[in-house]
Amino acid sequence: MGLLACQSCDCGLSDWCSQGMGASVLGPTILSLVTLLNADIKSISHTFTGLAVGKLVGSFLAGIIYDRMNEQLFLSAITAVLGLSLGLAPFVSSLRVFVVLMSLEGTAHGLLGAGQ
Question: Residue 29 is part of which domain span?
């Protein structure tokens, strides 16, 4: 039982670390995003709204999905979606696609946070 508790603690710790890194990546890179996406700061601020709306939607969906799925599979899939959205972010050159990607990331954050 001790080994199982230790493994679930490690999984939870890595999930929280990935959430922290994902949530904090926008702040320091906002000026680089202005150049990368060829937009102004006012337009870039829509990414924060998309991230927040995604978290709200993800938290709502987690209550529905979490009871109907295998918990480990659910958390693994959401962590993979979170990693994929963070990995694709530097390669996006359109502001609209970036906002959608950040909304997807926010949804993954909401699902992951409510799933723990």
Answer: 2-115
Domain count, the chain: 1
User: What per-residue confidence (pLDDT) applies to 3?
Assistant: 43
Neighbours of 71 (CB within 10 A): 12
SS3 breakdown of the chain: % helix, strand, coil, rounded to 5?
Answer: 90, 0, 10
Q: If DSSP codes are grouped into helix, strand and coil, which group holds residue 41?
A: helix
CB atoms within 10 A of CB 107: 26
Contact criterion met (CB below 8 Å) for 98 and 44 = no
Token pair of 29 as six digits:
């890179």
What is the reported pTM?
0.78
Which stretch of DSSP H or E encloses residue 98? helix 95-115
Res. 4: pLDDT tops 60: no
